Amino acid sequence: MARDDAVRVAVLWRGDARAPVPLLAERRHVRIFEELTKLGASAEPIVFADDAVDAVREQLLSMDGVLVWVDPIMGGVDRTVLDGLLREVAAADVFVSAHPDVILKMGTKQVLVDTRDMAWGGDTYLYRAEEELRAGLPARLREGRPRVLKQHRGNGGDGVWKVELARDASTDGDASVRVLHALRGATVEEMSLETWFERCGPYLEGTGCLVDQPYAERLDEGMTRVYLSQDRVVGFGHQFVTALTPPPPGEAGPPAPPPRIYFGPSKLEFQPLKALLEGGWVAEMQRVLGIEREALPAIWDADFLLGPRAADGTDTYLLCEINVSSVFPIPDEACAPLAATAVELARAAREHRTA
Predict the structure, then answer these.
(1) pTM score of the predicted model
(2) What is the pLDDT of residues 130-182, one digit of tens each?
(3) What is the rounded distance in angstroms from the CA atom of residue 86 to the CA atom of residue 224?
(4) Is the pLDDT of residue 3 over 80?
(5) Which one of 58, 288, 322, 333 counts the least CB within 10 Å of its CB?
(6) In whole angstroms, what is the distance from residue 19 CA to residue 330 CA?
(7) For every residue of the chain, which 3-state class applies, written as one string?
């Protein structure tokens, strides 16, 4: 049982704020509640909804820290209202993970462009307007390799497309492309390049953008998800990704992916990638993006695909995306270090607030 002076850490997710809070055993993040309690913290569930901002604000301002699990877009609703509230709470010296400003630096597809000069980067471009897309994409498609285009913010494969030239022509408007959406159940479509440009329009509205990467030829060897608490690797996940792979003969789209398999941080086959991240990649990312160690999230993950083999035969790695907004599920081994980080930073926030 938590002491009266225990650090208070909220665990927040989106839902019906008027409904009864589920019992501990029924909560999605039950292991995290348990690990926070083991450390003597008072772990408080908070359900957020856009129409309950005032009540949630009052709850959060009584906390020392808050761990947030809310997708960038959920049921057609984005995080605009929540992010404004979290900035307000953080300004009042409540530890917030992940802070909305850190999400914008790390957890959008633009990070692939901002860090493209790192060892995990590559031939990556950013289109902020349709004119830039029209000027850049056709020439890259004519190099003969498929491209992967990703919207600025999203989850579940929404707004991620594999695009390749189906038929060249004397003018871009007459060219044809084959496109495949990464959403489950999507099928390959062939259309004119002009039609494809029109389809991309909604992704470029307002502050939107599209990130353009080369298709990873070793995609069928699987994707490794590395889970980190701040700058320390705390677990791995591995999955054979099928979303953008060529459909089997006779099928219109890729098969359903097998489940992701989770491992602790000591899994032997992933130690080279762990060494790269802890030995310099995370620190370099911090320098490039301007993020202090204390601001790194209590839990985040980075997805890597295998790149071309180096001259000595060793693997290289390509960053696919970084997830910060709602990292779950996670390996069991990640729960304890996540809780320890949250308690440490929440305690520091309380000491600063009461100094």
Answers:
(1) 0.92
(2) 999 999 999 999 998 999 999 988 777 888 999 999 877 666 667 899 999 99
(3) 30
(4) no
(5) 58
(6) 26
(7) CCCCCCCEEEEEEECCCCCCCCCHHHCCCHHHHHHHHHCCCEEEEEEECHHHHHHHHHHHHCCCEEEEECCCEECCEECHHHHHHHHHHHHCCCEEECCHHHHHHHCCCCHHHHCCCCCCCCCCEEECCHHHHHHHHHHHHCCCCCEEEEECCCCCCCCEEEEEEEECCCCHHHCEEEEEECCCCCCCEEEEHHHHHHHHHHHHCCCCCEEEEECCCCHHHCEEEEEEECCEEEEEEEECCCCCCCCCCCCCCCCCCCCCEEECCCCHHHHHHHHHHHHHHHHHHHHHHCCCHHHCCCCEEEEEEECCCCCCCCCCEEEEEEECCCCCCCCHHHHHHHHHHHHHHHHHHHHHHHC
- d(CA 113, CA 124) in angstroms, rounded, equals 6
Give the amino acid at 334: A
CB contact set of 287 (below 8 Å; sequence gap of 6+): none
Residue type at 85 in one-letter notation: L
What pLDDT score does 130 carry? Answer: 93
- Indicate the residue type of 350: R
Residue identified by tokens 């993006």 is 289
- Tell which wins on pLDDT, 67 or 22: 67
d(CA 271, CA 277): 10
Q: Are 192 and 176 in contact (CB under 8 A)?
A: yes
Residue type at position 228: L
Gap between the Cα atoms of 191 and 166, Å rounded: 9
